[in-house]
Specification:
Layout: H1 52-70, H2 84-94, E1 104-114, E2 117-126, E3 129-138, E4 144-150
Helix pairs in contact: 1-2
């Protein structure tokens, strides 16, 4: 059996209900009213459709990345088409990997939010698992990938 050296003291809680009587007067902050504003303008649509030739080049480049991730293509071959950050993420993912299962691109969607930039997203099967891909490309000669992520 445990004994407590100090006695336990119970205290009454302080009053938390308002005192009886008229309610307090509203302050100047309470007098503000909501303003009705017009709906914000809709988000601007993409600048335009991605030309089929650019979409085909993007698809080919992403397939080359998947080959590099599998170890079937040297990653160094992709250096010219990627910024150092994007290239580093591919190099890290591909480092020391060899697999018997071939990765493949299941779907790819591309849009052009601003002139000269194409954003792409897709689904790839890597090591028998479905993975999401996201990429951003500069449309110029040669096509250059600024961001590439396998999620």
């Amino acid at each position: 059996m445990t004994t407590i050296a100090e006695p336990i003291v119970l205290r009454a809680l302080p009053d938390y209900e308002p005192k009886p009587g008229p309610p307090p007067r509203p302050t100047h902050l309470a007098r503000r009213r909501l303003r009705v504003v017009a709906d914000p303008p809709p988000a601007s649509p993409p600048v335009g459709e991605v030309p089929p030739a650019v979409a085909s080049r993007i698809r080919n480049l992403i397939n080359q990345v998947l080959e590099a991730i599998d170890g079937r293509r040297p990653v160094v071959q992709l250096r010219q088409q990627f910024t150092p950050t994007a290239y580093g993420s591919i190099e890290t993912r591909a480092r020391g990997r060899t697999t018997t299962h071939r990765s493949r691109l299941r779907s790819l969607h591309a849009q052009q939010p601003v002139e000269g930039i194409v954003e792409a997203c897709g689904i790839a099967e890597i090591d028998t698992r479905l993975r999401a891909l996201a990429a951003q490309f500069e449309v110029r000669e040669p096509l250059r990938c600024n961001v590439f992520r396998v999620l």
